[in-house]
Every structure is written in structure tokens, then in C-alpha cells.
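Notebook, student rotation project (T.W.).
Task set for the rotation: take a protein with a known small-molecule partner, predict the structure of the complex, and write up what can be learned from the model alone. Partner molecule chosen: flavin-adenine dinucleotide. Sequence and SMILES entered below by T.W., checked by me.
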Amino acid sequence: MEKTYDIIIVGGGPVGLFAAFYAGLRNTKVLLLEALTDLGGQVQTLYPDKKIWDVAGLPGASGRELIDRLKKQLAKFPVDVQTEAKVTDIVRVGGNWQIAINDGQTSVTGRSVILATGKGAFEPRRLQIDNEAELEGHGLSYFAPDLSLYKNQEVAVLGGGDSAVDLAEQLDSIAKRTYLIHRRDQFRALEQAVLALEQTKVIKKTPKKVKSAQKTADGRLELTLQHVKDKDQQEQLVVDNLLVQYGFLTKGQADTGWQVDLDWDSAGIVVTDQMKTKQPGLFAIGDASSYPNHVDLIATGFGQAPAAVNAAIAAIDPDRGGPGHSSSMNL
Ligand SMILES: Cc1cc2nc3c(=O)[nH]c(=O)nc-3n(C[C@H](O)[C@H](O)[C@H](O)COP(=O)(O)OP(=O)(O)OC[C@H]3O[C@@H](n4cnc5c(N)ncnc54)[C@H](O)[C@@H]3O)c2cc1C
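Predicted structure of the complex:
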């Protein structure tokens, strides 16, 4: 029989991660769903190397460090986590919430749901060539979660920001040959990352863009690179993999396609006390939530998460005692 979770948290950004931890601490059956391959939301996706100064007790932690710490904290409890699980619908069934994942490929049921969806699900900014969809997963990728897969391969990284430069630099010691293709001569990445790149054997192709890509008979990718200022200047480059690192976009917070009726304003889902939406058992926290003078800060969401979890538990099990202090627990 399908498991019914006490609390399903939608969105694995910093606020969803902390909410999942706190729900685990309170001994509930919890599921955390994240659309992307990596947990960490905006912090991990948009600024992993920037220092964050305004999270209590963590002066000057990088985005990556903050997310690593949240993941470590979450691992304390047996919380189910599904990545690459985009919530595409939320419907009330009986007294529970049924959640469709990836256009109904699977569904899960929860007694309550906490929406920690931030500014909406991120999508990679795609390579604009005709056969992009055909090539994705067949040499063309937007994510590189396991760099060891590129051992002894020829890899082209596309982009000029932090993620492209960092990735090319890391691949240099793993791949047989690494190319970095960027439409400008200068890279936008942090100075430190660009300096590190200079110490590698990465072959830079600038100012160039990928005009087209074709599969070769032996399953590799043949790229046609075009000089951005002189269209007639073209060259062919054959590689095993093309990793596009153009950053991410979101479709917009309210463009969810969910059937559930929620009140949205320009800042997010309107909530009242204890982060309640207008629907019973449905809460919104972090950047996804909206109320007068709400500020989009990680610290704000960290305060909201326990409020929503405690309210969800009180609704599911009114006889359960209050939260207590973690320092009294034997963890
Ligand atoms: C450049 C930059 C610098 C910043 N610096 C700071 C700072 O120094 N200090 C600070 O406090 N704040 C800072 N912020 C703001 C901070 O990053 C956000 O307030 C914080 O990330 C909000 O966390 P969240 O978990 O609510 O949402 P997010 O981080 O946006 O995470 C939401 C997650 O939900 C997922 N999601 C969305 N829709 C779905 C769906 N349908 N199904 C499944 N998953 C879904 C998304 O993929 C994402 O991973 C900065 C923001 C930016 C852009």
C-alpha cells in the first residue's frame, strides 16, 4: 500500500532542507521533493561560492558550505528525499493531499504539505539549436553530478560564468581533454576561479558560440563553432560530451499548473499565522510565502520552518505535546 506521509515538503532549497530536518526532529514521516538534481535552491544553483554573512552562527560561510551543513543536519533523521521530482499538481483527496510528480509519472500522498518552492522551479537555460531535445542525454547535458563519468573523455564546457569556469577547471584533471567555449574573450566568473583556470590545460575557444551539433557515426558530437564577430569564421570540434552551463531560469512563482486554489500576490503565496495558506494542511515558507513586510532572507525562512512544521503536527495530531528543546534530546 502507498505510504502516506505526515508532511511532504516541496522544494529542497535552504528553507525546505531545514523544514525537513525539523520535521524529522519532531519524529514525523517526512518526504522532501526537489525538482533539480541538486538540493540547495538558489544558494546552490545561483551563488555556491559567494559568502553569506547573515545566517545566525555562520559568519562568512559559502553558499556551498551552508547547503552541505544543512544536508548533514538533515541526515540525522530518516527523511525520504527525492530529487529530479518536480511537483506538477496538488489535489485534495479525502482529508489528504495528493501530489503528482513529473507530470503524473508518480504520485505521493501527505496529510500536510509545506511549500518551500522559493521563486519557482529552476530550469537550465538551454542551448538554442534545432536538435537540442534530440541530443539532450546523448552527449549534451546541463548537469554534471558525477565528474568521474568524464574520465578519459573529450569534453566541451559551454559558458563563461562561475559554474562553467569551475567545471572546466575540475574536469582538467579528470577528462582527456577539456575545452571551454565562451562567446566573450573575458570570463564572468570570480577572479579566483579565472586565475585557477589559467593554471590548467583547458583549451579556450573564444569569442565563439556553438552554431550546431551533430552526432557522428561513432556516437560522438561534432560541434560547429562560430566566431561571434565574424560568422564566416567557423571550425569543427569533435567531443564526447558537451556540458552547457548557461545558468538557470524560473518560469515564475505562480506558474505552477497546480489545481489547488491558493492566493498568490506578486511576492508569493499569501499566508496567515503559522504560515497557513487558505487551504487546510497546506503551508508556505521561505521565498514562496508572502505577508506584509516579508523579507526574502534565508534567516526569515529558518524561523518560519519550525512554525509551519509545528502547526502541521498540531493539526494532524492535536494530542501530541509541544516541540520542546532539541538540547533535551539524546541525538
Ligand atoms: C545572488 C543572490 C544572493 C543572495 N544572498 C543572500 C544572502 O547573503 N543572505 C540571505 O539571507 N539571502 C540571500 N539571498 C536570498 C536567498 O537565497 C533566498 O532567500 C533563499 O534561497 C530562499 O530559500 P527557499 O528555500 O525559500 O527557496 P529557494 O532557494 O528558491 O529554493 C526553492 C527550491 O524549490 C524547488 N522547487 C520549486 N518549485 C518546485 C516544484 N514544483 N517541485 C519541486 N521543487 C520545486 C526549486 O528547484 C528550488 O530548489 C540571495 C539570493 C540571490 C539570488
